[in-house]
Each structure stands twice: as structure tokens, then as C-alpha cells.
Amino acid sequence: MSVTQPHVLLVEDEPAQREVLAYNLEAEGYTVSRADNGEEAMLQIREITPDLVILDWMMPLMSGIEVCRQLKTKEETRNIPVIMLSARSEEVDTVRGLETGADDYVIKPYSLRELMARVRTQLRRSRPLASGETLRFLDITLDPERHRVTRSGVELKLGPTEYRLLATFLEKPGRVLSRDQLLDLVWGSDIYVDTRTVDVHIARLRKALALGGGDDPIRTVRGAGYALG
Asked: How far apart are CA 182 and CA 212, in angstroms?
């Protein structure tokens, strides 16, 4: 299975800075979406949930602080890591940014090498599979290096789609994912698949996990989607 590359939303109203940063992020292998104001950023996030948001503080229409506040107060977006960029270097500004919910605060002008390192750190938390880390939940283990899934020590045979589904759930345990979100994360946003297809593959994944014993770890949330645990 090829792991989908982490998706970074870059929100910066200064075109030159936005393009330089986007170029460096793409050179790291990330998929990059761009927005030049806070309102556009929120619209994009509602359509496709990114793995990381890099967010400038001072922007037209809606400030980075307000975007961050809204993201961190909503259940479906509160776990998205946010790196705040700002020319405001006073300690009180850093504290305000972090208290709003930003996961990191970078002062302009910044070193691109340092910023890329901070991006990698945040993505290891939100997309551990892309970093090659073994994922675990209760008695379920997924080893991406060996492409091996076990439950209570019993190796499970999963199809490619069921493997990607399980990996997606393991990266976001407890989080409710809608069918549309699962389609984007597992099949890709550029491929049309009927949402009922998700239900079919969830059923197959449940059947495979049952062979390892134990209760069904996938929870159906009526009217919302599915969650692991």
C-alpha cells in the first residue's frame, strides 16, 4: 500500500512568502493547499480536513488567531495541529497564540530548515503512519514497514482498501470520521466513489478483525460515520 502523503494547508496572505514556503513543503513530499485569508482557509478545511495547518497571524477578513480559535473549539477539527507564523515577537503574543490553541509558534523571519523540522514534528503526531511508525490500538498492531497487521498476536490478511481504512482509523483513534472524510482519506479526493462503498469495506474490515478474536473495535455513529473505539 502506498501511504497518502500528508496534506498541509498553508494560510499566508503574502504571495512571495506563501510560494517559497509551498515550494519547500512540496519538496519535502507533502501535498500543499494554499489560502490567502482566514475565511478561505475555513472553507477549505470544511471540504477536506488537512493533516496540518500553517497559519499566519495577520491576515485580511479573519485573523490567524480567530481561525485557530474556531478550529480548536470544534470537535471535528480540534486535533489538527496548527503552526502559527507571526512577526509579533513579544512574549505576551507567543503566549496568546499558544493559549488560543496553536501547537507551535514561529516568529518571522524564520529559518526554513527549522520550520520544516517543526512541521515534521507535528506531522509525526497527526500522521504517524507516514513517518513509518508502528500503530497500535488495544490488541491491534499495524507495522507499515513489514505491511503486517496482527490482533492478539494473530496475523490478519487484509485487502489493500481494508488496510488503508484500518491505518486511517489507527492514526485517529476515537475520532468520528464521516463517510465523505473516509473517501478523501482512503480513496483520495480526486476519485469518485459512492459513499455506500465505504460501508462495504467497513464490513469487510470488521470481518477480518473478528478473525483475531475480541469485540468489534469499530463503532458506528448514527448519522455521523465511524470511529475506532
From this structure: 24
